[in-house]
Amino acid sequence: MTSEQRIRPAKPEEWEAILPLLQTMGGQCDEAARQRFARITQSDDHYLPVAVDDSHHIGYGWAQDYGPHLRTGDRTARLHDLFVLTSQRKGGIGTALFAAIRAWAEGRGVRYLEWQASHAAVPFYERLGYTGDPCPQPEYPFFEIEFPGDCGEPLR
Ligand SMILES: CC(C)(COP(=O)(O)OP(=O)(O)OC[C@H]1O[C@@H](n2cnc3c(N)ncnc32)[C@H](O)[C@@H]1OP(=O)(O)O)[C@@H](O)C(=O)NCCC(=O)NCCS
């Protein structure tokens, strides 16, 4: 990360700025997606940080808190997306976005932060110290962090 780059939560009105990043990740980026983006960026159960460089959006992440388990009360959050523009990679931005998501999850009392990595991203997560479980999809290994301590239902 350079001194001009920073991580902050995305704003609902930033759809146009983040659209090229979402399109590179793939999927439907239509009007319905714009509405989902507006809802997600205003939802307390979601966290969508962006990496910005001056006025440019150069990366984003997205995680969702699924809430407490019915019987145990343990909260599980899932990291859905982590993306950095190709031209900006290997500069610490992915690490900073992941750290922000991890801190968000831990800060709200989540017990499990889970994600599945694309094959190409596995070395990145391994560089951060995480080892994926190849089940159930060997080509998309499953990762999980279990946070220590009493994580039962601090929010609701
Ligand atoms: C995965 C991704 C987010 C990493 O972003 P990044 O900004 O390049 O990551 P960083 O610069 O913080 O990398 C941290 C470390 O991992 C290493 N690393 C990153 N990507 C790597 C790769 N593909 N292979 C090997 N090492 C890699 C970096 O060199 C760096 O090592 P260092 O600490 O020795 O300098 C980025 O490559 C990306 O957007 N990929 C496409 C989307 C994707 O696959 N997302 C993950 C979905 S689960």
Question: What would you say about this model in short?
Answer:
With about 160 residues, the protein is α+β, with helices and mostly antiparallel strands.
Task: Characterize the structure shown.
The chain has 156 residues and is of the alpha+beta class. The chain has one domain: 3-Layer(aba) Sandwich (Aminopeptidase). It has 4 helices and 7 strands. It has helices at residues 15-25, 31-42, 93-107, 122-127; strands spanning 5-9, 46-47, 49-53, 56-68, 75-84, 112-116, 142-146. Strands 1, 2, 3, 4, 5, 6 and 7 form a 7-stranded mixed β-sheet that branches. β3 (49-53) and β4 (56-68) form a beta hairpin. Bound molecules: coenzyme A. Coenzyme A binds next to β5, α3 and α4.
What is the CATH C-level name?
A: Alpha Beta
In total, the number of domains comes to 1
Q: What is the typical, i.e. mean, pLDDT?
A: 93
Please tally the helical runs, counting DSSP H or I stretches of 4 or more residues.
4
Principal-axes geometry comes out as globular
The CATH topology is what? Answer: Aminopeptidase
CATH level-four homologous superfamily name = Gcn5-related N-acetyltransferase (GNAT)
Poorly predicted runs: none
Percent of residues in helices comes to 25-40%
Short key terms for the protein model shown above:
binds coenzyme A; alpha+beta; 28% helix; 156 residues; globular; Aminopeptidase; 7-stranded mixed β-sheet; 4 helices
